Amino acid sequence: xxxxxxxxxxxxxxxxxxxxxxxxxxxxxxxxxxxxxxxxxxxxxxxxxxxxxxxxxxxxxxxxxxxxxxxxxxxxxxxxxxxxxxxxxxxxxxxxxxxxxxxxxxxxxxxxxxxxxxxxxxxxxxxxxxxxxxxxxxxxxxxxxxxxxxxxxxxxxxxxxxxxxxxxxxxxxxxxxxxxxxxxxxxxxxxxxxxxxxxxxxxxxxxxxxxxxxxxxxxxxxxxxxxxxxxxxxxxxxxxxxxxxxxxxxxxxxxxxxxxxxxxxxxxxxxxxxxxxxxxxxxxxxxxxxxxxxxxxxxxxxxxxxxxxxxxxxxxxxxxxxxxxxxxxxxxxxxxxxxxxxxxxxxxxxxxxxxxxxxxxxxxxxxxxxxxxxxxxxxxxxx
Length: 383
Description:
The protein has a 7-stranded antiparallel β-sheet with strand order 1-7-6-5-3-8-2. The relative contact order is 0.15. The chain is built from 7 helices and 8 strands. Mean pLDDT is 77; it is low at 1-43. It is α+β, with helices and mostly antiparallel strands and 383 residues long. A hairpin with a 5-residue loop joins strand 5 (338-345) and strand 6 (351-356). Helix content is 62%, strand content 9%. It has 2 domains: 2-45 and 247-381, Alpha-Beta Complex (endopeptidase fold (from Nostoc punctiforme)), CATH 3.90.1720.10; 64-229, Methyl-accepting chemotaxis protein (Helix Hairpins, Orthogonal Bundle).
């Protein structure tokens, strides 16, 4: 009777992939009937998986927020680095200004000393001139050895007086120049100090904002860590649960779309052109529901999905990932293959999948596959 049913299913046109999924369902159903009797008894992991998925959404959301804050922190750090460079350059300029002021102060002191010296010379010259000027011109003339000596002495005194006066005027002019430059440098130093104060204030504000941002980022990361711990506990509960759960609908909207008694009528098909309650229809719906996009490649073998994905540039591989599609193409599932949706990948290598048409024809189930104990998929499709 079973072989007649399989032959009847195999003869259905355009339903090769349905036949493949049914072969898998019958084989697994026979396995569980042999091992556990006529009824598969297991505990559902749907609720646990829903909790794990909800936690994953929170983890993703908090990770996104933490990443945004990290980007902001990096921007602030760059701005602070620029401010540090500007402050460092300004400090170097201030040091040069202070050095110039020190040199000007030394020059001013030397100029003042020279001015005082010139004033003393001028004072002495005036005094000497006064002494000689106290005698009458006749007396000075008589006292001279000759008239030319008298003229020379008068000329010398006048020249000395004028020279000292000129030196004094030059020194005074130099002093005024030094004082003017000194005033300019002091003004420049005041401006530099004001600019430095403004830069330091801005730097402090940026640093405060950076500390706040990094604190928020750390808080989100801690939330992620806590959520991951909670998720790990739930995933361990999933592992500890029954290896197979059979029953319910898994949220699939066409679970009651048509009678399923071993023959497909497939009057309308799902939005992707696949027959309802087949492994391909459920997996297409799950991909669209979770990942947001599912290509339409219509009727075809489940075993063709890997090649179909590659043809459309969708990545594939042999490493299981959560929310990937598991694809069997080997002969254990007949020549037409099988597909299922990966719910969880655990650290021990076990993979939890949800699917239709595997444990029983047209029915929903969840399986935890363990490497070495389960027939693992040939490929995974990363939508």
